[in-house]
Amino acid sequence: MTIHCAAVFESGVLRPKEPMALPEGAEVEISVEYARPPDQPPRTPAQMLAAIAALPREGDGDTSTSVHHDRVLYGEKGAR
């Protein structure tokens, strides 16, 4: 079973942001991926809208939008 959750690293411990439905004493494996690079501030709404506006539009001669939908929206790693 796989559970995805957001967590915060504080005082050497990962703390989930939401309660997790795990039995006490459950052993788990953890993979850590930054939500964003630690030295990069969160994007502003204006920056997000500019990124959306820069996406290729259907009919512009670029078929990558429909052919590579996940790559266009989520980057090279695709949807998770």
Could you list the spans in which at least 5 consecutive residues all have pLDDT below 50?
none
- What does the average pLDDT come to? 80
Strand order of the largest sheet: 1-2
Principal-axis shape:
elongated
Question: Approximately what portion of the residues adopt beta-strand conformation?
Answer: 5-15%
Q: Tell me about the biggest sheet? A: 2 strands, antiparallel
Q: In which range does the helix fraction lie?
A: 10-25%
* Strand tally: 2
The domain count comes to 1
Helical segment count: 3
Give the H and E element order: EEHHH
Spatial separation of the terminal alpha carbons? 15 Å
Rg (C-alpha, Å): 18 Å
Protein structure class:
alpha+beta
Describe the structure.
The protein is of the alpha+beta class and 80 residues long. The chain has one domain (7-74). Helix content is 24%, strand content 10%. It contains three helices and two strands; from the N terminus they run ββααα. The protein has helices spanning 45-53, 64-67, 69-74, and strands at residues 7-10, 13-16. A two-stranded antiparallel ribbon has the order 1-2. It is elongated, with a radius of gyration of 18 Å.
